[in-house]
Recover the amino acids of this structure.
């Protein structure tokens, strides 16, 4: 499959950005806007695990993600490179991410950093917007860092 033209690439990237900012802002509507109503999200930790450690199917289950993530005081999903291949109104892709998860501690903070690759399948809707039909969260490794907590959102 061919790589997308620049305008299509940017339109595909919007889904990744809506996902990331929706989680970080705990904005369920924005997070769900990245998915088709029947979309699926599955987490593989480690990335090589054949079966997902968790899975959410459809908007009702996906909406739980912005509640579950609240176990952390703050998160920051920093998106890296994305690659896509497009075939008509279907696309596959991969996006890299460093996902920071902050938990305050007695001595400052604990930052759990997940090194993630997203395995992405998208479909263009009748409204022209690309949304996920399936997104795999492949956690390659994690590390913990000390953090200085200076404020919240």
């Amino acid at each position: 499959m061919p790589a997308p033209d620049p305008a299509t690439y940017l339109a595909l990237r919007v889904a990744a950005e809506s996902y990331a900012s929706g989680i970080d802002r705990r904005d369920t509507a924005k997070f769900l806007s990245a998915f088709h109503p029947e979309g699926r999200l599955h987490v593989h930790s480690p990335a090589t695990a054949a079966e997902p450690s968790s899975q959410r199917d459809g908007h009702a289950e996906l909406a739980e993600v912005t509640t579950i993530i609240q176990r952390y005081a703050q998160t920051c999903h920093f998106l890296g490179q994305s690659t896509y291949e497009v075939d008509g109104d279907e696309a596959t892709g991969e996006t890299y991410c460093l996902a920071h998860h902050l938990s305050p501690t007695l001595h400052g903070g604990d930052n759990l950093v997940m090194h993630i690759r997203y395995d992405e399948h998208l479909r263009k809707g009748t409204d022209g917007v690309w949304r996920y039909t399936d997104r795999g969260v492949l956690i390659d490794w994690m590390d913990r860092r000390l953090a200085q907590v200076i404020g919240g959102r």
